[in-house]
């Protein structure tokens, strides 16, 4: 499992055995590194070792686009009940934040990324998250690979692609009884398509939530929601196979 190396306001994510190269010097991360250790670069600068937690994945993964926000990940988990031992089929890996979160929870994830370079980055991110044994990042298009997954009985199907509706239409083929599909969409048009596909496919309880989060401001005058921005990230559609 990787650790955070912290020096004042700087943080770096590295795995045991890795090297850190910065203007503060070169630092070798020992294989037996422990949380709370203080490591020193060859220039004498010190870094404190801190444990890796889920939100750190969002902050420190190498990005290949806009990753799913932790609040959206939480809604996926809360609305599907994904848990250790579940099998998850995913499309639109991107940076891999969702897959890594689910892998850290103990789910077995098969995720598809169309862009080979993005897939390579995601594989490295899974290594850093310590979940490369239970998150399988595949290069390809799930819409072209669905036949290979038919009747494989997945507990959850998660989609973050522009053509998610095409996969939702065949979700009953890959989901076990009681399984969920969860679709993240940045645009409401894609959301409507996903809902219509879910209903036509015979999935139940199809619904969509918009994710909006407002931070609070506290000062001497009083307390109120922040006025800077609406806090919208996207739309999450859920449906279930019965």
Automatic annotation (TrEMBL):
One of its GO terms (biological process) is tRNA processing. One of its GO terms (molecular function) is methyltransferase activity. PROSITE patterns: RRNA_A_DIMETH, SAM_TRM61. It comes from the Archaea. Transmembrane segments: none annotated. Residues 71-215 form the tRNA (adenine(58)-N(1))-methyltransferase catalytic subunit TRM61 C-terminal domain. Keywords: Methyltransferase, S-adenosyl-L-methionine, Transferase, tRNA processing. InterPro entries: rRNA_Ade_Mease_Trfase_CS, SAM-dependent_MTases_sf, TRM61_C, tRNA_MeTrfase_Gcd14. This is tRNA (Adenine-N1)-methyltransferase. It comes from Halorubellus litoreus. The lineage of its organism: Archaea, Methanobacteriati, Methanobacteriota, Stenosarchaea group, Halobacteria.
């Amino acid at each position: 499992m990787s650790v955070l190396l912290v020096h004042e306001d700087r943080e770096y994510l590295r795995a045991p055995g890795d090297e850190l190269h910065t203007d503060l010097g070169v630092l070798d991360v020992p294989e037996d590194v422990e949380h709370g250790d203080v490591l020193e670069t060859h220039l004498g600068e010190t870094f404190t070792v801190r444990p890796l937690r889920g939100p750190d994945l969002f902050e420190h993964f190498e990005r290949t686009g806009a990753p799913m926000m932790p609040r959206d990940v939480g809604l996926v988990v809360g609305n599907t009940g994904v848990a250790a031992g579940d099998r998850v089929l995913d499309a639109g890996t991107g940076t891999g934040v969702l897959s890594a979160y689910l892998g850290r929870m103990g789910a077995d994830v098969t995720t598809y990324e169309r862009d080979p370079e993005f897939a390579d980055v995601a594989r490295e991110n899974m290594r850093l998250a310590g979940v490369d044994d239970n998150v399988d990042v595949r290069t390809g298009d799930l819409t072209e690979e669905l036949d290979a997954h038919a009747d494989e009985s997945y507990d959850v199907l998660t989609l973050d692609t522009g053509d998610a509706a095409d996969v939702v239409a065949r979700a009953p083929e890959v989901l076990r009884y009681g399984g969920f599909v969860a679709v993240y969409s940045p645009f409401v048009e894609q959301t409507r398509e996903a809902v219509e596909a879910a209903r036509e496919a015979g999935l139940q309880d199809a619904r969509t939530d918009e994710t909006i989060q407002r931070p609070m401001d506290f000062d001497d005058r009083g307390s109120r929601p922040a006025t800077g921005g609406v806090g919208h990230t996207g739309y999450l559609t859920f449906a279930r196979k019965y």
